[in-house]
Design brief:
Length: 345
């Protein structure tokens, strides 16, 4: 009897951690939440939080598959990868009885292609691929992706290090979908993209906004969070929603299928779904607010950047980057390698 009791106690300690407190392991990119949210959650719930970072969606997927849907309690990833984890059975259904703040979500960001019945995903931040430029440094108006090929921009353009976005930019200029599987079309777009190489000064995901603010580059294709930070530093910068069409993406939180502590994950989701806490999260994150109840609590200086412009409230007019065939994906990857080589990287 004593031996059985010791086994039960040992198992409980494994679940809750050596301190005896319940644990929550969050797996996502860095800087996704304000520290006051993380600290406040631990203080108010008694749940000890461990924050683990990944660098890419693909890294996350590999680790989650290796763990067979275990190890992590809450994951936040991009929309196309959400589709993959659901298809692979690596996600569990949400328990809405534990989400009293669920109605605070903006319905605009629900019933997406990756989760049409809203069974699995809590949307957490959304954004568009946007051009931002310094009008004092450029003597012509930029309205389109195509303008980035202008010869006056030699060695003055910065772009994010995301081949589906940047290769997709060339596809959009040529009038095609981001998600085409036509390899001839993808090759033609790759040839056109290579013509942009002389204009590229920087290819980087991290802190590209700093390079635009400092004048290292005059124009950049950036994520929404970077656009927000750049505009906060330099209100004179111009934002462009390209005429060829806007790429739109949503990040989402999910609970892995064999999460050790799903109740703790639900508790954290409900905590950030609170309207005022959600506003704090989005002001830190710099992406569009996906909780409509949070919008009124976003500070005035951020509101123009963190709520989707009224002109673009119809998300059907935007295109989301989705999964394509393995052959098309491999071709995109080769084109991207060739393009980076042509820019000297």
């Amino acid at each position: 009897m004593l031996k059985k009791l010791l086994v039960i106690i040992s198992f409980a300690l494994i679940i809750s951690g050596c301190s005896g407190k319940p644990k929550l392991v969050i797996y996502t990119w860095s800087d996704m939440f304000p520290q006051e949210i993380l600290t406040g959650f631990e203080t108010e719930t008694g749940i000890k939080l461990r924050y683990v970072n990944f660098d890419t969606n693909e890294t996350m997927m590999a680790k989650l598959k290796a763990a067979k849907g275990g190890r992590y309690d809450l994951v936040i990833a991009d929309d196309y990868m959400l589709e993959n984890v659901i298809r692979e059975g690596l996600v569990q259904k949400l328990d809405f009885s534990q989400l009293s703040n669920y109605s605070n979500i903006n319905p605009l960001y629900q019933k997406q292609f990756y989760d049409p019945k809203d069974d699995f995903i809590i949307p957490y931040g959304a954004g568009v691929q946007t051009i931002v430029y310094d009008p004092e440094k450029i003597n012509f108006k930029i309205d389109r992706y195509l303008d980035l090929w202008h010869p006056d921009l030699a060695q003055r353009v910065g772009i994010i290090d995301n081949f589906r976005v940047i290769n997709g930019m060339a596809l959009k200029v040529m009038g095609h979908s981001y998600n085409t599987n036509d390899q001839n079309v993808i090759r033609e777009a790759g040839e056109f993209l290579n013509m942009l190489a002389p204009n590229i000064r920087l290819i980087r995901d991290d802190k590209l906004d700093d390079e635009l603010v400092s004048g290292e580059v005059y124009v950049a294709v950036m994520y929404t969070s970077q656009v927000t930070m750049a505009k906060m530093e330099r209100p004179d910068l111009e934002i462009v929603f390209p005429e060829e069409g806007i790429g739109f993406g949503i990040m989402g939180a999910f609970i892995p299928s064999k999460a050790p502590n799903p109740d703790a994950a639900h508790a954290f989701l409900n905590y950030i779904l609170d309207a005022e806490r959600g506003a704090l999260c989005f002001m830190e994150l710099g992406y569009y607010s996906t909780f409509s109840a949070s919008d009124p609590f976003i500070d005035d200086e951020y509101r123009d950047f963190l709520t989707l412009p009224e002109d673009f409230m119809d998300l059907d007019s935007m295109e989301k980057i989705q999964n394509i065939s393995p052959e098309a994906e491999a071709l995109h990857s080769r084109i991207w390698t060739e393009f980076k080589s042509a820019t000297g990287r």
